[in-house]
Design goal:
The protein is an all-alpha fold. The chain has one domain (about 1-85). It is about 75% helix and about 0% strand. It has 6 helices and no strands. Helix 1 (about 1-20) runs antiparallel to helix 3 (about 40-50) and helix 4 (about 55-65) runs antiparallel to helix 6 (about 80-85). The longest helix is centred in the first third of the chain and has 17 residues, at about 1-20.
Length: about 90
């Protein structure tokens, strides 16, 4: 079950970084407004940590993703220090 939570954590970060598509429906926009903010993402990652994901895995994911070309394309590397501050107890 822990593997599922690790994958969920990765998907959550990717979904947050990529954001909405250009032709998003009204429902997708409303759901993104409700659940797509940084506080909601950190809450979901916090829940995954309660279910077995370790702090080291979270920080390792953020370190690996910070230097990935995928994220540099979206120019959101400034958000990773925010994630790290919110995730470290």
């Amino acid at each position: 079950m822990r593997d599922w939570h690790v994958k969920h954590m990765e998907k959550t970060v990717v979904k947050f970084v990529t954001g909405l598509s250009v032709n998003a429906t009204a429902w997708e926009k409303r759901q993104n407004k409700r659940y797509g903010r940084i506080t909601s993402v950190c809450r979901q990652i916090g829940y995954d940590m309660k279910q077995g994901v370790t702090n080291e895995q979270v920080l390792l994911l953020l370190q690996l993703q910070k230097y990935s070309r995928f994220y540099k394309k979206f120019e959101v590397t400034h958000l990773f220090p925010v994630f790290e501050r919110m995730m470290v107890p």
